Amino acid sequence: MVKSRVISAIKFLQQCLKETGLEVSKIILFGSQSREEATEESDIDILIISEDFWNKDIFERAKLTKDAEIILLCHITDKSTAGGGMTSNRLENKTNVKRLNGWLI
């Protein structure tokens, strides 16, 4: 089971993003935390899905998450594919996206 502190951190991030005006459709945890292989040095890999990212470049998307980064003292890296970001609908219907082995939070 994913550690409760990881889930709490993700839920806190979701609340911070909501307070800054970003409407989050889904947050998906993946990587070592979701596989329960994390060490003390492991990061938390998440995928944030939001319609608010649609048709925005990397700089505009970074502005949407900036306030949450300041509150959490963390860094959110945009690793989206080309094409204006992934929305919930595009992710679910995209055939060339590898299926994530993760937890929907």
Number of strands: 3
| Helix content range | 25-40%
Given the structure, what is the number of helices? 3
Strand content is 5-15%
Distance between the termini: 13 Å
Task: Describe the sheet with the most strands.
Answer: 3 strands, antiparallel
Output mean pLDDT.
76
CATH fold descriptor: GMP Synthetase, Chain A, domain 3
Q: What strand order characterises the main sheet? A: 2-1-3
Order of helices and strands: HEEHHE
Name the CATH class. Alpha Beta
* Inertia-based shape: globular
Assign the structural class, choosing from mainly alpha, mainly beta, alpha/beta, alpha+beta, or little secondary structure.
alpha+beta
Oligomeric state of shown chains:
single chain
Number of domains: 1
Poorly predicted spans? 93-100
Notes on the structure:
By secondary structure, the protein is α+β, with helices and mostly antiparallel strands. The protein has a single domain (4-104), classed as GMP Synthetase, Chain A, domain 3, CATH 3.30.300. It has helices at residues 4-19, 58-72, 88-93; strands spanning 26-30, 45-49, 103-104. The protein has a three-stranded antiparallel β-sheet with strand order 2-1-3, with no helix packed on it. The radius of gyration is 14 Å and the shape is globular.
